Amino acid sequence: AQKITQTQPGMFVQEKEAVTLDCTYDTSDQSYGLFWYKQPSSGEMIFLIYQGSYDEQNATEGRYSLNFQKARKSANLVISASQLGDSAMYFCAMRELGRGFKTIFGAGTRLFVKA
Amino acid sequence: EAGVAQSPRYKIIEKRQSVAFWCNPISGHATLYWYQQILGQGPKLLIQFQNNGVVDDSQLPKDRFSAERLKGVDSTLKIQPAKLEDSAVYLCASSSSPGLAGGWELFFGEGSRLTVL
After folding, report:
1. Which site from A52, A106, B30, B63 is most exposed, i.e. has the minimal number of CB atoms within 10 Å?
2. CA A45 – CA A42 distance, rounded (Å)
């Protein structure tokens, strides 16, 4: 069944340290994409990073990297050098090609960055 | 390039009343999604359109919710009659068709916040 699981409701990290937000997924499709979105308190959904199921290298975008382990069906987000502005909700999402690009989201992880 | 437009931004109604939300996706985007996001939770897919056809509406409470996307462009989501548990932010998103060159990202509107009293 198509599913996204984020097991960390909340995470704390010290400013300037790195943090890993966990995401596991379940799909029977071979072609899919995995995403991370950031949602600050303002409510907007900000796209952070994308990983395709056929991509062999982990995706990176500035301070964000996606640790993609296909066999384990995990797509963890790593934020390096955390900043106070990184405090927000983070959602993992999956889009399946075989299901007409159906896109589902996980429950989210709230990240708190401490000064 | 204009983003995804949604209206109204805020709506307060009493239970059993009706409400409608409008979404205009990014020009040329074939896929349009409506999500319901209850406070503190992740977005829940209500309905997905590909052009003007429904791809998935398995989680749409069809006894009270309806949605249409006439001419494959803008879309309307209606709730009638509303219940207290419908209080949420309704997010509209659009995307182009994915391919090797990209197109996987969803673009979101600012959302429509509904409060049902």
Report:
1. B63
2. 9
- Asked if residue B101 has pLDDT above 70, the reply is no
Q: What is the pLDDT of residues A51-64, one digit of tens each?
A: 999 988 999 999 99
Do A103 and B55 lie within an 8 Å CB cutoff?
Answer: no
Strands A24-26 and A3-5: antiparallel
Cα–Cα dist B54/B49, whole Å: 5
Q: What does the alpha-carbon distance between residue A47 and residue A9 come to, in Å, rounded to a whole number?
A: 20
Minimal CA separation from B49 to chain A, in Å: 9
pLDDT digits (tens, 9 = 90+) for A96-110: 887 778 899 999 999
- CB–CB of A75/A44 below 8 Å? no
Contact B104 A43 (CB under 8 A): no
